[in-house]
Amino acid sequence: MICIKLGGRTQNDPLLPQAIAALWHSTGGKVVVVHGGGDQISALQRLRGEEPVFIGGRRVTTDTALELVRMVLSGLANKQMVSALVAAGAPAVGISGEDAALLRATPIDSAQFGHSGTPASVNPGVAHALLAAGYLPVISPVAAREHDAANGREAGAYNVNGDDAAAAIAAAIGATELFLMADVPGVLDGDKQRIATLTLDEARALVASGVAGGGMAAKLDACAMALAGGVNRVRIGDLAALTVPEAGTAIVARVDATDSSK
Question: How far is residue 155 from each of residues 94, 101, 145, 146, 163, measured CA to CA in Å?
Answer without folding.
Answer: 21, 11, 7, 9, 24
